[in-house]
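Sharing a chain and its predicted structure for anyone who wants a worked example. Both blocks are below, sequence first, tokens second.
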Amino acid sequence: MAKEASFYSKEPHQSVRCFLCAHRCSIKNESTGICGVRKNQEGILYALNYGQVVAAHIDPIEKKPLFHFFPGTTSYSLACVGCNFKCSFCQNWQISQTAFSRAVGVDGFGVTPDKIVQEAKLHNCPSISYTYTEPTIYFEFAYDCAKQAKENGLYNVFVTNGYMSKEALVSISPYLDAANVDLKSFRQDFYHTFCKASLQPVLESIALMHSLNIWLEITTLIIPGANDSEDQLRDIARFLCSIDASIPWHLSAFHPDYKLTDVCSTPAKTLEKAYGIGKDEGLKYVYMGNIYTPRGENTYCPSCKQLLIEREGFLVKQQKIKEGTCPYCGIRIEGLGPPFR
């Protein structure tokens, strides 16, 4: 069901300028923006994917991944078709890349915000996650769901590439409680080559989210030979520390997929190297995922180094944080929701 889009202005000759994301597409009549789901029809921009949910699941919150946001709970997770990136290594390309989705007839099924909230409550999920594709690209639907969720005592999560405009982020910030942002690299040439996008807007979104008091965690998918150099990893860690050393950094192993099938999977030793870099630069919480490591998913006290949350995959096996503090040395352990408050 199409709905008139937010964040656009009219231009001459029935063109429009979309400013939902950092691409700020100029869209001619009867054309779509880069995302493929915002269409100009006679000078009015429509969100074609409003309420057209293509995936809905009940996930552990750790799958987002969020390790310092209501650990051990589930999150009602949904997506609509579309993305404003063209990542050659996309793990969900069947639903994020609109050209393929149209070719195979993937449109989604019509759902209302009220139904989304009902499902989340029915399954005892304290949060709703807008994920799998890019939530910015189904912003209007995510916004309506998030507002209604907040009115019903639920929390809202974006799993995002961070390419939304400042206007969009500020607009949804009263209803957005947490976000995991993919910081894919710290090099503009990587973003240009692999994502058809730019680095700087992502950095600006991360800083803005933090200033808006949105709980923030960062994921970097480490691709051998592309973004795994020590300089790049150190630059990311330093950037995060410059904002807040308590921002968790998730290091994720790459597996060949979509158009990037000629690159090998990330070795465990590469993640271990990145983990050490993050710690050396002063980040309090660094994690390794998408590959088995004996300690990479555990939360340790940044002061006394004691194990506080033990995880195996997406399962929380034990947690020892007491009222937001380490039971061994008493320092505050940052996060949102029990046991962090």
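Comments welcome. The mean pLDDT is 95.
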